[in-house]
Amino acid sequence: MSCCSANISKKVRSHCPKCDEPCLNMSSHTLLHQVQFPDNQKITQDDYAFCPNHLCHVGYFSPSHMIPKQKLRAFKESQKAMLCYCFDISEHLYQSALESGTFKPIKEFVIQQTKLASCACETRNPSGRCCLAHFKDMEKSYGHR
Ligand SMILES: [Zn+2]
Predict the structure, then answer these.
(1) Do 24 and 50 touch, CB atoms closer than 8 A?
(2) Which of 2, 61, 126, 127 is 20 to 30 A (C-alpha) from 69?
(3) Domains of the chain
(4) Cα(103)–Cα(45) distance, rounded to whole angstroms?
(5) What per-residue confidence (pLDDT) applies to 1?
(6) pTM for the full model?
(7) How many angstroms separate the Cα of 100 from the Cα of each of 19, 77, 105, 129?
């Protein structure tokens, strides 16, 4: 089963200690793939959550540990706000596609790959979650369905 078809519970929420953004809890499996060496050796079996606010310095946090975004591999590679980490689609790129009406092939590509279980959200996306919901949120804000 691909990560995107898993029924993800949204019950467990924490609030970022810095910006108070609601954050979803995640498995330490995702952290192991996201945090740069040598900080990835300090990950414990705690309950971690990811702060999705791009302007906030907090990356992952648990009740006893905080890892800043600058220690994450995804943020070292790029400071862009990413929409889909599996296929390197930035929010800016999708926003332009929505404005010019060329977004459908992009979204269809992502949906297609997701169906083929070629996505890797659990390890690629710092939030450990599928990005398809985020695509829909952006479409709604542009009046698309
Ligand atoms: Zn935050």
Answers:
(1) yes
(2) 2
(3) 13-141 (2.20.25.270)
(4) 40
(5) 43
(6) 0.70
(7) 33, 28, 12, 28
pLDDT per position as a tens digit, 128-138: 888 888 899 99
Q: Does the pLDDT of residue 115 top 80, yes or no?
A: yes
Give the mean pLDDT of the chain.
85
* 69 alpha carbon – ligand 1 mean position (Å): 10
- pLDDT tens for residues 36-70? 888 998 898 888 999 988 889 999 999 999 999 99
Q: 124 CA distance to ligand 1 centroid (A)?
A: 20
Give the C-alpha separation, 37 to 125, whole Å. 17
User: Given the structure tokens 């542009």, which residue do they identify?
Assistant: 142
* CA 90 – ligand 1 centroid, Å: 20
Give me the pLDDT at residue 15, please.
93
- Rounded Cα gap, residues 75 and 69, in angstroms: 6
CA of 18 to the centre of ligand 1 (A): 5
Rounded (5°) CA angle 53-132-95: 65
Separation of 104 CA from ligand 1 center, angstroms?
Answer: 32
What pLDDT, on the 0 to 100 scale, is given for residue 50?
Answer: 93
